[in-house]
Amino acid sequence: MNIFRLTGDLSHLAAIIILLLKIWKTRSCAGISGKSQILFALVFTTRYLDLFTSFISLYNTVMKVIYIMCSYATVYLIYAKFKATYDGNHDTFRVEFLLIPVTLLAILINHAFAPMEILWTFSIYLESVAILPQLFMISKTGEAETITTHYLFFLGLYRTLYLFNWIWRFYFEGFFDLIAVVAGLVQTILYCDFFYLYITKVLKGKKLSLPA
Questions:
Q1: Helix, strand or coil, per DSSP, at residue 56
Q2: CA distance 165 to 4
Q3: For the segment 65-74, what is each residue's pLDDT rounded down to a tens digit?
Q4: Are 198 and 191 in contact (CB under 8 A)?
Q5: Where are the alpha helices (DSSP H) in the chain?
Q6: C-alpha 181: how far from its chain's center?
Q7: Which residues contact 121 (CB under 8 A, 6 or more apart)?
Q8: Distance, CA of 114 to CA of 42 (rounded, Å)
Q9: Torsions phi, psi for 208 (to 5 deg)
Q10: What interhelical angle do 115-129 and 96-108 show, nearest 10?
Q11: Each residue's pLDDT tens digit, 14-44
């Protein structure tokens, strides 16, 4: 495992922990898109079905279990335990506009036309756009809490580091996965504007505000 994948995984884990702690400590899920969290839960579920069929390493297995459990825990906190604080009026992104194209794309463009492979490809495509409901929600409310922006920053950092991981693997291992690289690039691009605002405002102690 190279340093970019390791730090990418740790950034991803940090983002998830930051979000869970934010919700639990404030006893509120205000400003958090439940729709994005459902999509991420769907991403991990469809990607890690191989938990039941193959073993790569203890690290790999543990991380998969953590991602799945944390994603469903987040969904539970938003839609059950702290449902009263969920801002459904602003979480209005039409997720079918993501799910339908992603499903069709996974069926048409994949490495092999087999159920497990199609589901894995579906998860890769869906992850690249799963954050859109959250970004859409922020654009509607016009601002985001600092802790929420930290969550988004580490999520974007994870994806950026994974791009370097693919570059490393190409040059030193001869491995190249076009589907994962293109999807990762799309996801990173979606975060570019947010990265700029995060660096110029949040790190200087200002609250992140976006035009509604």
A1: coil
A2: 5
A3: 999 999 999 9
A4: no
A5: 3-26, 34-47, 58-76, 96-108, 115-129, 132-141, 146-173, 178-200
A6: 15
A7: 106, 109, 110, 111, 179
A8: 19
A9: -70, 120
A10: 140
A11: 999 999 999 999 999 998 999 999 999 999 9
209, containing H or E segment: strand 208-209
64: helix, coil or strand?
A: helix
Task: Dig out the tokens for 109 from the structure.
Answer: 């463009």
What are the φ/ψ torsions at residue 144 (nearest 5 degrees)? -145, 145
DSSP secondary structure of 100-155: HHHHHHHHHS-SSSSHHHHHHHHHHHHHHHTTHHHHHHHHHHSEE-HHHHHHHHHH
What is the rounded average pLDDT for all residues in the chain? Answer: 89
Structure tokens that stand for 133 in this block: 């409901």
Q: What is the pLDDT of residue 69?
A: 97
Instruction: Output the CA–CA distances (angstroms, integers) from residue 2 to 16, 127, 182, in the order listed.
Output: 22, 22, 20
Structure tokens at 188: 């990173």
Q: Which pair of structure tokens corresponds to residue 139?
A: 């654009």
The C-alpha torsion from 208 through 165 and 98 to 198, rounded to 10°, is: 0
Look up residue 141 and give its amino acid. Answer: T
Whose tokens are 């469903």? That residue is 72
The single-letter code of the amino acid at 34 is G
pTM of the model: 0.90
Cα–Cα distance measured from residue 74 to residue 79, given in angstroms and rounded to the nearest whole number:
9
